[in-house]
Write a structure and sequence with these properties.
The chain is α/β, with parallel strands linked by helices. The chain has a domain at about 5-170 and about 200-230 and about 290-305: NAD(P)-binding Rossmann-like Domain (Rossmann fold, 3-Layer(aba) Sandwich), CATH 3.40.50.720. The chain is about 40% helix and about 15% strand. The chain contains eleven helices and 13 strands. A seven-stranded parallel sheet has the order 3-2-1-4-5-6-11, sandwiched between helices. A two-stranded parallel sheet has the order 7-10. Strands 8-12 form a two-stranded parallel sheet. α6 packs across α8 (about 230-240). The radius of gyration is 20 Å and the shape is globular. The relative contact order is 0.13.
Amino acid sequence: MNVSHRELVSATSAGRLAAVTGASGFIGRHLVKALSDAGWRTRLLLRSEPDEAQWRDVRPQVVAGSLGDAAALSRLVDGADVVFHLAGLIKAARQADFFRVNRDASETLAQTTRQIAPAAHFIAVSSLAAREPLLSDYAASKRAGEVAVLDSLGDRATVLRPPAVYGPGDRETLLFFQLARLRRVPLLGGPDARIAMMHVRDLVRLLANLATAKPSGKVLCAADARPEGYRWDELLGAAARAVGNPSPRFIQAPQSLLTGAALLGDIARLMGSASMLSSQKLRELRHPDWSVPTDQLAQPAGWAPEFDLDAGFSDAVGWYRETKWLAA
């Protein structure tokens, strides 16, 4: 008898409880749905009342509170079979803010899990940026968070570093498609740079599979079927095809322009305002090697990426246009 992958996952997860931080974020929203589809009960840590329309088909339990609320964290993980930690800062005005959330809160949640739900599999969703902690405060704080989790939980934890993740609902990679509409498409990195990519639905299916796997006690990575990554012209060429610009002319983005834009972000940070674009973020963006070695890939049984770059970008653009984030 043939049994589908979804049926196999559901058979091992039915009725079990997954606790999730960061559920209101881009990846988190997709993950909660994927877990529900696989038969998991879900419990979410949310700062505010949930959007009923968003969670109508999922019906999660909700714990009101934040990562800084010790009692809320205890309620979140109590009785959980798996804890997914996705919450974190991707922009902040100060280094201390990055470390307070990405390191200290991760450590607190891990220690709470060890005390309240010691048998739970703790899955920390980090970032490939953590591989290069000298590039930015963000990257350094994500690496520190990984260390804190593994020091607290050892082989009860798995750390996963996704690459650049895109798909419906993502505001960060929307820039790729906005640039790809231009007659002259600027390349943001050098000709030898490589960037690994992953569609969000492939990532959350991977996470759902890891939830039923044995904890690794290691740092693993994720990527689509090309973990070696894509050149910038390949990446923006696929984005151009997705937006209906089949013959773009590529140009190297002037370094002076990128540096000037990053300087504005640096000034904003000095004035206490968090900015996505800064000199540190530019160093991340222009880093030449965001590929993923195959021996570091998480490859649980029964999982394989479904989206190549063309199919994934087409899916993202369809959503952007439907929601009016991108003009038709």
